[in-house]
Amino acid sequence: MTSDPQRRLIDPSRVDAAVRGLGDRETVVQWADRFSVIADPTRLTLLVCIHYAREICVSDLAAAAGMTDTAVSQALRLLRAHGLVTAHRSGRVVYYRLADATMHELIHHVRPHPDGG
């Protein structure tokens, strides 16, 4: 811990623990950027739908989310750019799935599977 002689600490060990837990400040910036992407209700809706479907194509995702194919495609482009979803082609159909295990776990904790699984 960096000591500041002007600052009186009540419990230096808790300050040390907080600083160690915080870690690299750049990681905090990266997570803040990631959270800003999922803070949008449209993008979060798509992520939750993809989470439960495991993988899904644009037209089915649009139907599930109550959106247009175009709006879904635009949001998926941003989600792919941030590494949150990945796509694979099966014939003429492109399927999307969560690419980020941490996002999968976060969604699962925030919105557990309705069937308990």
From TrEMBL:
InterPro entries the record matches: ArsR-like_HTH, HTH_ArsR_DNA-bd_dom, HTH_MetalResp_TranReg, WH-like_DNA-bd_sf, WH_DNA-bd_sf
Record carries keyword Transcription: yes
MF-aspect GO terms: DNA binding; DNA-binding transcription factor activity
Presence of the UniProt keyword Transcription regulation in the record: yes
Keyword line: DNA-binding, Transcription, Transcription regulation
Any one Pfam family match given in the protein's UniProt record, by short name: HTH_5
Residue ranges of every copy of the HTH arsR-type domain listed in the record: 23-117
SUPFAM superfamilies: Winged helix' DNA-binding domain
NCBIfam families attached to this UniProt entry: HTH_metalloreg
The name this protein goes by in its record: Transcriptional regulator
Protein's organism: Prauserella muralis
